[in-house]
Fold this sequence. Notes:
With 271 residues, the protein is of the alpha/beta class.
Amino acid sequence: MKPVGGIDDEWAELDVDLDRPNAARVYDYYLGGAYNFAVDREFAQQAEQLLPDVKYVATLNRRFLRRVVRELSALGVHQYLDLGSGIPTVGNVHEIAQETDPEARVVYVDNEAVAVMHSKRILADNPNADIVAGDFRKPAAVLEDPVTTRLLNFDEPIALIMCTILHFISDEDDPRAILGRYRDALCPGSYMAISHGTTDNRPDLQAFGDSYRKTANPVTLRSKTAIEPFFDGFELIEPGLVFTPQWRPDETETDTEPEKSGVYAGVGRKP
């Protein structure tokens, strides 16, 4: 079985689980991408019955990512570590950062085979961006990977990007401990950007989140109070932890009910 876009025979060589939908490929579908399989599309369409505006929620999160990279680039950040980066789509971190700084360096991290292979394809001619095929829940392996050590200098500020990925870590897996390992590796002046699903003001998201138990990536939605401690060791920059459309909106942001985004977003700076 091939993705909807029709890819060559390399897909047959990948270790892709077609029995269960995968969150990275489902998200790709929400964003209008072609790197998803029938099992992913079927799940996504069922999930859309529970949350009819899920594609818009995903789009708002993507816009947040783009604004973050532009803002941090303007602040002089030249290095990015994007954890759980997923399947690349237009306007990914390296494209935005390298628009203004062609020498900006980007390391993506994902363990989904389609995401890794497609990333390697589009980054093949980009000497300043690459992907680590690994599990971001294992910080030591990510930080010591040859791709990471080749591209990133941890003596200089780095932007750690964690967009809609932490809600795929259960409380039992101790996300704060995982974050602490990455935080400790960053030098002062580094940043961390997080977006995270929530049921605050969107109780209907609970049924949607529960549906992910059928996938390879179960979801734990959290309140603002539960998300705030993820920024321990960082100082939140303005406007703090807010809904995605509220984080430094540009002129195109016209949302009158930002709480309907169902996703909190914030950026912290390591002092």
